[in-house]
Specification:
Elements lengths: L3 H7 L3 H24 L19 E2 L1 H14 L2 H19 L3 H7 L6 E2 L2 E2 L7 H5 L5 H9 L15 H20 L7 E2 H9 L2 H4 L5
Antiparallel strand pairs: 1-4, 2-3
Helix pairs in contact: 1-2, 1-8, 2-3, 2-8, 3-9, 4-9
């Protein structure tokens, strides 16, 4: 089976970006399912969106995948609504420090009725994020003043954290092999940059 890193090494157009993100999310979902089958009490479930109000950093190819997927799957009006929220959130983030953003509980522009509109191609940072306690996530959401303290710590499974780290390392190695930047930026700001380069972000597949 072709790995996400292999796909990224072979191409960086819109279709490759979508494929990489879809493969990555599927791998993470499989790892989560395997740990749950072993009895791990991963608290994440559909409709739980506390983490969708955090500051998220993404690679450029992830922004390309998100926009291409949304454009392909949504009506023009639904896409326009998300685009407006992306731009509004990016402007809001422009006026914040990273610490202020983390404390702001700014909802992701892709969140609709508690669900991610691009879940199948969600960024690795989102896909790998998990918690063993919904109560801790709810506390973190309701008490951003506790950010960085033990009261806002997130219990996570070591195996899944290690798996996520390995996928991150493979992704960055594949980007480097293609001569592409492995730097990351704030989700909405990177999405805005991709919207401003429509031929790159929403162009025809490879």
């Amino acid at each position: 089976m072709t790995s996400p890193a292999d796909t990224l090494r072979r191409g960086s157009g819109a279709a490759a970006c979508v494929s990489v993100c879809r493969q990555t999310a599927s791998l993470v979902d499989g790892a989560f399912a395997a740990r749950r089958a072993e009895g791990a009490a991963v608290a994440c479930a559909p409709g739980c969106s506390f983490c969708c109000h955090q500051r998220v950093s993404v690679y450029a190819h992830e922004a390309v995948a998100l926009l291409w997927h949304l454009r392909a799957c949504l009506s023009d009006s639904a896409f326009a609504s998300i685009e407006a929220r992306i731009l509004a959130n990016a402007r809001a983030v422009d006026g914040m420090t990273a610490a202020q953003h983390r404390a702001a509980n700014l909802g992701c522009a892709l969140l609709i009725a508690g669900r991610c509109a691009a879940y199948d191609v969600r960024p690795l940072a989102c896909a790998r994020y998990h918690s063993l306690s919904r109560a801790r996530c709810e506390h973190a959401f309701e008490h951003p003043e506790d950010l960085g303290t033990p009261r806002n710590s997130r219990p996570a499974l070591a195996q899944l954290e290690t798996f996520g780290d390995a996928l991150t390392a493979e992704t960055e190695a594949a980007l480097a092999a293609r001569g592409l930047s492995a730097s990351k930026g704030e989700l909405h700001q990177v999405l805005r940059a991709s919207l401003q380069r429509p031929n790159r972000a929403l162009g025809a597949p490879d």
